[in-house]
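Limitations
The structure tokens in this dataset are predictions for the assembled complex, not deposited experimental models. Users should treat interface geometry with appropriate caution, especially where small molecules or nucleic acid strands are included. An illustrative entry is reproduced here so readers can see what is and is not provided.
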Amino acid sequence: MFYREAGDFKTSYAADSQTFPIRLDRYGYYTTLAIAFLFVPLVISDYWANALLLPFLIWAIASLGLNILSGYCGQISLGTGGFMAVGAYSSYKLMTAFPDLNLFIVILLSGVITAAVGVLFGLPSLRIKGFYLAVATLAAQFFLVWLFNKVPWFYNYSASGQISVPTRSVFGYEVTGAEANSEAKYLFILVIVVLLAYIARNLTRGRIGRSWMAIRDMDIAAEIIGVNPLLTKLTAFAISSFYIGIAGALFFSVYLGAVEVGEAFGIQKSFLVQFMIIIGGLGSIFGSFIGAAFMVMMPVLLKNIMVGQLGWATDIAAHFELVIIGGLIILFLILEPHGLAQLWRLTKEKLRLWPFPH
Amino acid sequence: MSADFYYTIEVIINGLMTGVLYSLVALGFVLIFKASGVFNYAQGVMALFAALTLVGLQNGQIPFAPLINSIFGTNLSTFGWTLPTVVAIVLALGVMVLFAYLVERYILRYLVGQDPVILFMATIGLAYFMEGFGDLMWGADIKKLDVGLPQGGNVWLESATEGWAEGFYGFYIDNLDIWATFIAVVLVIGLMVFSQYTKTGRALRAVADDNQAAMSVGISLRAIWVIVWSLAGFVALVAGTMWGAKSGVQFSLSLIALKALPVLMLGGFTSIPGAIVGGMIIGVGEKLFEYSIGPMIGGATENWFAYVLALLFLVFRPQGLFGEKIIERV
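Predicted assembly:
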């Protein structure tokens, strides 16, 4: 009754091609933005920010990036952790080399650097596909992590081999470093997330996104109708790595503060993001967000229940978490291979007819 | 002949021995991939799980003891007896067969005909599940596995080759590695004989060749899958035992699965000889690279050498050394 396009008349081209054509979607989007920008900063606490909100937003960027590559362009990548490391280390090098550079520009440039690296490792995708490509991207994962571990230039010859973030502020508020408070961090990341999600949404509706999907669905047919596979795949790798690089830079500079590369950006992180987009939904912007929310929230919830309520040892809880994550992945692949986003889509279809289904 | 020359040979021999172990894991991959087209990421975790089960049974650990203790507040740990190695191996094999059946019954059956990538993701999920499950069942601490194979350097070989060159103290080769090689060779010959000369083996090859044609002549695809996963479980048990005896049963065991991927890219996904030769090449290659170039660039190159080698290989010969030309070129 409320959720439908009938009666929602468009009188201009701009209105016809807007990001959310259905009125209720649009209102939902504005409400979410209003809550995220105006209400959440008022009630945010350090615990909530560090346990849920910041990781959620950062992983949402990473899964947006991977979703562009895997969900939209159909290229499997297991190198997400490695690319995040590239973003993190570029932001570190930029921040220490140019102390006066604005943090926004630092983050942006880290994304650009990661995009270049992503294109480099995306080159094999021009010859191979499927999980052969997945294995090829594993090379990126292991090689990059090793590189940042072994070449002292990347961590500025620090004795511990770690990188730790210098204090930087945006508009007079400290965003990175130990003194920065959660509100500033949260808002800083939120702005980037909203921008990136908006760009991703519109990229995927536009010409580039359609050529990605054409390549994903049937590469030979796409080539015949004039989609250039070389350009399409490399743009997918570039833009995906750009997103992932930004996620890595934020993960290091704003969220963690200090990073040891093997621990923070290991192969487990690649799988984590992969799981996010499977559970959330391949080829869906909204899915990237719910996938990230799900995978961030579940361990916290499980830990609270098992360690907090039942009083089990933490290692048992950790093992249980693995069992549950693994089980969920299999369950999702069997029951709903298109993830939570597909459930949401079905709900919306039902909503269109509700409450008069006939 | 200088000592350096002999040391290089020693590195090569040790590389071959490591390569044999990679081959063992890769073998499990190839078996499953040929029969069901599933790229089984969980093979490494299967090796870990098999080794954990073996140790647990040997020591008479009570499964899920920490979990039971947590829930009921009891204080269980072991049954108080130890099993002879042979019995434990047979029982562990039984567990792996049961596991194969469960995988077919509850996962593969529902995913038939899905995109290979979906199946691959499902096995990643399976790997996570089993890793947690194995740890819950037997505990996550590093365990010593002793199956009665000799350990330590081979004294005979060392003393026999000592003094071949100035400053050369003889080849140092682990007894365990020699045994592992021997067992691997026996295993491969056994598998070859099995697939060439038995009825089930022929059925396996038929399914690998063309599963629809195989079904049409009355071969049960599901039974074949259970058999193949059991075989892979058996191979995982052997590989897990060898690695476990060498470096303790611990989580890092499952990471050798990742090492098996480049082995497969080199050897081809559908070829058993390919898996073996690929394993050797990777084993020797990474040891030699680490020995000759590693010190110049900071060491620990073994982490990535195999992948980069496979990556380069993929660009020039995507089907691998022995693989069939079925890989889709873009």
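Some entries come with short summary sentences. For this one: The first strand of chain A starts at residue 163 and ends at 164.
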